[in-house]
Protein 1
Amino acid sequence: SQQGEEDPQALSIQEGENATMNCSYKTSINNLQWYRQNSGRGLVHLILIRSNEREKHSGRLRVTLDTSKKSSSLLITASRAADTASYFCALETGRRALTFGSGTRLQVQP
Amino acid sequence: EPEVTQTPSHQVTQMGQEVILRCVPISNHLYFYWYRQILGQKVEFLVSFYNNEISEKSEIFDDQFSVERPDGSNFTLKIRSTKLEDSAMYFCASSELGLGTYNEQFFGPGTRLTVL
């Protein structure tokens, strides 16, 4: 399967803690993108990491990519209640279409 | 900040009716997409569109579906004869094309389609 699979499926943490979500995949990729989706709402683009990159930062977000292990992780530092959402990895594997995983539901308790 | 917009936010229709979902992509973007998300399921790619023609489509995008860019700003998805299983959230997305761009796709807020 080309699609990414996020792990864990659900994560509950306290405000101020760090949240780490993982994405594993089985095929080669051009890039991997992370998105956030609040319940019943649209997809917000968080960060794109290209296949030749190993790490990227954006504010409180840190994304790593290990193409040898075919895995990526999204770290949210100093989480806030407003970070409560579902987080998805999406793979671009050669064509421009993105293939999404099932997502990680993050709950940040105030 | 530029964003993708979609109308309507919610569409209710009877089975067998035609629906048209509308999107205004980000103005300098050249690639446009439709995805859907059935409740509780993954986001699925439907179709991509570039230079006034379909670039790629999935198995979901059968003859009941069509896309059009009727003018310089709108991008539409038409479902000719809706089925119950077409009930889903439909997302439009757009991305730039050009040197230094890497297909970051920016999504609209979605149209929730309910087929009765």
Protein 2
Amino acid sequence: KAGVTQTPRYLIKTRGQQVTLSCSPISGHRSVSWYQQTPGQGLQFLFEYFSETQRNKGNFPGRFSGRQFSNSRSEMNVSTLELGDSALYLCASMPGQGDSPLHFGNGTRLTVT
Amino acid sequence: GEDVEQSLFLSVREGDSSVINCTYTDSSSTYLYWYKQEPGAGLQLLTYIFSNMDMKQDQRLTVLLNKKDKHLSLRIADTQTGDSAIYFCAELRDTGGFKTIFGAGTRLFVKA
């Protein structure tokens, strides 16, 4: 079974731009979660989607948004990029039952200049 | 991470045992996980333990859970240089919806 796939692997953007990151979960997994990882803040939960609906949300500003498609693929969007948005963005999937471990992709490294 | 605490660094010699400790705060946690992150990669699930268990062994890995003290540990026997990585402790919380909360990670250095 293929693992969680995130594209692109690396991205460089300038302040004020917007960016879209993509995540394809493990086949059969219906839940997709997004995390931001930075050296200073560690792993911060952004949001979780299940069956195209946002089921959980972390404490991030409205510039961070996401969606999930009927095939469970998910996208994350960040608008009006700030320097502090530079981070590794990790996507994780699980079958759908909440009490399952998360399976992570290799992340998208976003650099904002 | 919020309320899951780990020490930041651990250094051991190759062949020794490593013990990485973690404390969590939510007594309603159902599962506790250990993940490993190597440079440039995502998090790899190493092992997990259900909250009604005290211990779980999986090859070189032993997980101990003290639910009374909310203390979790990961022991790696015969530590190898390939074990050098960041290890994250995580708890699954059921707060009306499930959410996985991560510690800040312990960076393990293995000296040859």
